[in-house]
Structures are given as structure tokens and as C-alpha cells.
Amino acid sequence: MPESIGPRDEGDTEPVRLPDGNLEHLDATVRQLLDQSAEQARQLDNLASAPAGSPFAGFPPGPAMPAPAPAPRPILELEGEEFESEVDTLTDWVETFLMDTYGDEVSTAAPWCLQWQEHEDVLAWLHALWLAYHQHKEPDAGLAGMAVWHRDFLTHTMAAVRAPGGSLSACMTDPDRPAHRILPGPQRSARRTGASTPDTGEAPA
């Protein structure tokens, strides 16, 4: 039977020494336990703050969803800086893309105006065309998206805006002679304005 190894000095015990590899493993285990304890504490906090009966109680909150972009509005409904900013953006698109690509020669059959932004109906037409362009070039519009835009929006809009008798007919009909004139619209009727009638001199009831 082997002799038991006693302490070196009376009352003292031999210190236990572990290999370095065991120390690293023990340190990693302790860190893992601490991380698990912290995660459990977070879950308990979420559980305590969740509404009673919530099916998501105890789950960490998900990422915040971005706020939806505001729906586009007709340009004539905008005011102030919002209106000016929209006109500037639309002007860049009209002058660097639309007219460069689809602007036929200026003539009496297809007039144009370098100050087209001052014609309210033209501004509204081209803004609507611009919005439709952005919608139909998106991937969810499908492979035929731009073909639909050309057929249903571009052709009809350009025909209306540059019609021989339209809003721009008193403007530039020759590229060498720029002109700008806003044609007067229909006059309000006497009934709408409350003006006196020429026969009786009395305001209508």
C-alpha cells in the first residue's frame, strides 16, 4: 500500500495547481454563464413590461419600423417652400430628360414655352406625368411598366400640353423667337360673381 503524501509543513496544505489550458477553459465558462445571466435578466425585464396576456411577452422588442413616406399630392395643392421645391425638382426632370428625349421641334403645330411653369394647367399636367413616370419605372410595375407609361401617359400628356390651340399656342411657335403669354381663361358668370344684371340693375337673388 503506497504511503500517503503528507503536508510539507505542519498545518499547511499543498496548493492545487491547474494547467494553463484548464484555466482558459474555466474563464471562458464563467464568461458564458455571466452572458447567459445578463440575457435572462433582460428577458425578465421585457416580460415584466409587456401587457398582460400579450403573445409577445418575454420577447425582446424588434427593430423600429420606418415611418411610411407621405403620399404625393397634386402640385397645385402645395404651398410655400414645399411648392417651390417641387417645381424645382420637376423643372430638372422636364428640361434634362423629358424635352431632351421627347420634345419634338417647336412649331405652330407643337408650341412650347420656356416659362412653362407659369402656366398652371401645363404645370399640373407635367407634374402628373412625372409622378406616373416614377411609379411605372419601379420593379413592381413589371417589365411592361415603361411601355404602359409611354402609351397611357406620355403620348396623351404631350398632345394636350403642346396642342396647337392649347395654353402654349400664344407662346413660342418658332425656336428662334421665344415668347411667353398666358391666355385669359373663361370669365366668371354674373350669377357666380354676384354682379348686377344689365337689364334690371339688381343683383340676382
Describe the structure in your own words.
By secondary structure, the chain is mainly α. The chain has a domain at about 80-185. It has five helices and no strands. The protein has helices spanning about 20-50, 80-100, 120-135, 145-160, 190-195. The longest helix is centred in the N-terminal third of the chain and has 30 residues, at about 20-50. The radius of gyration is 39 Å and the shape is elongated. About 10% of the residues are buried. Pfam families: DUF4913. It comes from Streptomyces paromomycinus (Streptomyces rimosus subsp. paromomycinus). This is DUF4913 domain-containing protein.
Gyration radius, to the nearest Å? Answer: 39 Å
DSSP helical segment count: 5
Estimate the helix proportion, in percent. Answer: 40-55%
Measured by DSSP, the beta-strand proportion falls in under 5%
The largest β sheet comes out as: none
Principal-axes geometry comes out as elongated
Low-confidence segments: 200-205
Distance between the termini: 131 Å
Write a brief structural summary.
The protein has five helices and no strands.
Q: Key features?
A:
mainly alpha, elongated, disordered C terminus
Show the helix and strand layout.
Layout (H helix, E strand, L loop, with lengths): L19 H30 L30 H23 L17 H17 L8 H17 L28 H4 L12
Pfam families: DUF4913 (PF16259)
Organism: Streptomyces paromomycinus
Protein name: DUF4913 domain-containing protein
